[in-house]
Amino acid sequence: MAMQNQSNKVLSAALVETADRYWLRLCEVWPGAKTALTAEQQQELKLVFGLSDFIAEQLCRHPEWIPKLFDGLLEDVIRSQFDVEIHALLEDITQEEQAKSVLRRYRNLQMVRLAWRDFVNYAAVEASLLDLSSLAEALVIAGRDWVYQDMCKQFGTPTSAEGKPQPLLILGMGKLGGRELNFSSDIDLIFTFSEHGETVGGRRTQANQQFFIKMGQRLVNILDQVTVDGFVFRVDMRLRPYGESGPLVVSFSGLEDYYQEQGRDWERYAMVKARVLGPWSGYCDELHDLLRPFVYRRYIDFSAIESLRKMKQLIAQEVRRRQLTDNIKLGAGGIREVEFVVQSFQLIRGGREPALRQQSLFGAIDTLYSLGQLEYLAVDELKHSYILLRRVENLLQAIDDKQTQTLPNNDLDWQRLCVPLDLADEAQLRQQIADAMSTIHGHFNATVGGSDNQDYNDHWSSLFWNIQQDDDAATLLQEQQIEDEALWPMLSDWRQTVSKRSIGPRGRETLDKLMPKLLEELFNQSTPSLAFKPVSNVLDKILTRTTYLELLCENPGARQQLVSLCCASPWIARELANFPMLLDELIDPSQLYDITSIDDYPSELRQYLLRVPEDDMEQQMEALRQFKLSQQLKIAAADVTGVLPVMQVSDHLTFLAEAIIEQVVLQAWHQVAARHGVPEGTSPSNMGFAVIGYGKLGGIELGYGSDLDLVFLHGHSGAGSTNGERPIDNSHFYLKLAQRIVHLFATRTTSGELYEVDMRLRPSGASGLLVSEIEQFGQYQLTEAWTWEHQALVRARFVFGDNVLAARFSEVRGQILQLERDQTELAKAVRDMRTKMRDHLLHAEPGLFDLKQSAGGIADIEFIAQYLVLAYAHQHQELTIWSDNVRIFEVLADLELIPVMHAQHLTQTYCWLRDENHELTLQQLPGKLPHHAVEQKTDAVIEIYNEILSV
């Protein structure tokens, strides 16, 4: 039996079969369907059943909706009705679970309605996007208003100093802000309020910010939680100031301070779309006026182009790393590139042209034409191409209410796209999509992106790559005056090995284009064969990843950096071979050596994680590892080229680790909290939890491959339990949090382990609890800890967590370090510990000096510093301030506890030894040097050690 749509187009057997299956299910739950619906209505219903699993599943669950849909709902959408209807439905609701159910059922009915209109072409795509945005806005605002009223009954009304009631304002970001929301999009929101104050009229007063944070948490839960009725919208709050580590709600003044002092380019880009949701008020004007100077500069701002180009490079990296293909949003010429084109003009000229300060892409592109910034042809091509991609995206997501921008991998879903678009088959639609993306990419390159390819003329290196005979190769090398006998055999053997690999025609073609260009770079080296070995190891790992071969083929800078860095450091070569995604970092040499500033690692990491779905734990873990690897590569590249001295290398590696610790703790907190709730009075910005760094982390002296010595503390001493569905006592919560943190660090993903974590310095070592209550920690240090544990405490430093705990830890550490000790006993204990350590860890061959463990090495200098702090801190409190050896020696010299010459020699030798150790690590060599190379420096250290520790 053939079913026909309104165009009299015969549907495929697969679509008919799908439609019939759902029709039979409907008739089982609604036996009167055949008599209640006309033949024409049945035909249309079967059509949408065949096209959308989402529509079919919802209507089989709620057959009572079908008469409503045919009785006018499928006709014109009156957007203002959404808000009126939802508020009316919630008016008499008193329980949160009921409110969730009402919102979800209304959402599902309206989404069925809008999807139906989309599939049968009752609405243009622009109208459809506006309908979806209006529905989302109405649902968010209705949820906000219901939660606000419910909380005011309990806590009173938040008011300003003048007694004016304060509302919660919600900034809709992204496509919601631009009123161009797609069908299954999540929604990006920022919560804010006008000014600080207190609630009035409740049983007890509460600060406005605390009120709004609780309200925000409830609102996110009402919208985002998956129940039997599904969800309203997935909510993403990561665009707020400081991301997940920032408070959920901030005041206007807090927003203003953040964006003035710390706002990033990507946040400017995001704010172009920001719009206050709900009815307009004076507060909305105030908020938009406050944000405008951050987004739009008074001058013509061409710096925006470079920022957008960098953002697009990051997206291209993500596409490669996640091996995304057929992605109509993020791929070259995708939806995101149209947004970049339009928003680049808005950021550049919006300060001078108020008409460009609008959230809608359609409105902004028309304005650009009227201002003469874009030609009519460019506007026409961009709009038509963009509309096609947005239409395909909407239909793709409406098939099963899934957030995807990847084209189908099965025939049935291709047919579901082709029918509403009135196209014959997949090939025809693919061609239209390819043409649209090609057009968009051309305009993107003209506006933002630069050129894709560089002309390449055949060079003799092309002949060399294709030569088969040994004699011919030798002659060619002789002609070019290249004296390297090892190169041709090495290249020939490698080529033969590669010929047996299965890399596909596209991969082989790309490799044949790449190798002559790469050989040119190798021939610039003094001994090309030495460079070829590490470079070929990298190539071995990417032969089946054609996108990376293409990356090297198309980017001369990347090829040059690959060769020079592989020659400079076997460690870097190994990292590149093990983690090919790092090749992305080589594309722009100026970016590679423009390392992240010390203070920017937390915000850079937050931005990096924004590209990964918040609820996809696997991708979040992988993204953390990729960020660490890419930043570590940049630090190493700056190190081997002499851009960074050793002290700064360690600073960067340490602060990179701290940024990662912050995100790991936040992720662990959310995971444990989702299952058990949280202790009373805590939140992600006030956890009652602290991470203490010991050893190299505590001393701000991390090296490449260093592990992290960590101790976890919490501040909940009394009884109490968490507030979730599966409550546990508070101490158990913090234990689970600590276990989760260690798990997140240790889990091995495709990008390896994040860091090796050593917890043995905690109270009672490996047999002790994984997390200690702060006062118990202090008591242990006072009454049970060994001298070596107090030595370790000298190097301990608070690295992340609760500010109150940070202050208390500083007090406890100071008290312990300032205990008066018998100097003779202390010196003996320190000497004995050093001897024990050396016996256990020193494995240097005769004539070699172990930089860390040999006498006069790094460990001896560290023990000198620790002894002096423990010996004299009771008289000089300032000795407890620092955890790093360099500043400890400065203070010791200032206090005249050791001669200035001693302090300077210890500091200089310590830094030199660490520098040598870094260099040996980058050369993948053990941390040992010939005795004669170090004895001039280390002999003096041995003398000072013996003098101070009375050997």
Explained architecture:
By secondary structure, the protein is mainly α. Helices cover 61% and strands 6% of the residues. Strands 2, 3, 5, 6 and 7 form a five-stranded mixed β-sheet that branches. The termini are far apart. 44% of the residues are buried. The model is unreliable at 1-8 and 451-458 (pLDDT under 50).
Which terms would index this structure?
single chain; mainly alpha; 5-stranded mixed β-sheet; 41 helices; 61% helix; globular
User: How much beta, percentage-wise?
Assistant: 5-15%
Shape: globular
How many strand segments? 14
Roughly how much helix do the residues carry, as a percent range? 55-70%
Could you give the distance between the termini? Answer: 100 Å
How would a textbook summarize the main sheet?
Answer: 5 strands, mixed
Mean pLDDT: 89
Q: What's the helix count?
A: 41
Q: Which stretches of 5+ consecutive residues score pLDDT under 50? A: 1-8, 451-458
Which class do the helix and strand fractions yield? Answer: mainly alpha
Whole-number radius of gyration?
Answer: 32 Å
Topology diagram in text:
Layout: H1 13-29, H2 33-36, H3 39-51, H4 53-61, H5 65-73, H6 80-90, H7 96-119, H8 125-155, E1 156-158, E2 169-172, H9 174-177, E3 187-193, E4 199-201, H10 208-224, E5 235-236, E6 249-251, H11 252-261, H12 265-271, E7 275-276, H13 282-295, H14 303-321, H15 335-349, H16 361-370, H17 376-398, H18 411-421, H19 426-449, H20 460-466, H21 470-479, H22 487-499, H23 504-523, H24 528-542, H25 546-554, H26 556-568, H27 570-578, H28 589-592, H29 601-610, H30 617-640, H31 646-676, E8 689-694, H32 695-698, E9 708-714, H33 730-746, E10 757-758, E11 771-773, H34 774-783, H35 787-794, E12 797-801, H36 803-817, H37 823-841, E13 848-850, H38 858-872, H39 885-894, H40 900-922, E14 928-930, H41 931-948
Parallel strand pairs: 3-5, 3-6, 9-10, 9-11
Antiparallel strand pairs: 1-4, 2-3, 2-7, 8-9, 8-12, 13-14
Helix pairs in contact: 1-3, 1-4, 4-7, 6-8, 7-8, 8-10, 11-13, 14-15, 15-16, 15-19, 17-19, 20-23, 22-24, 23-25, 23-26, 24-26, 24-27, 25-26, 26-27, 29-31, 30-31, 31-33, 34-36, 35-38, 37-38, 38-39, 38-41, 39-40, 40-41
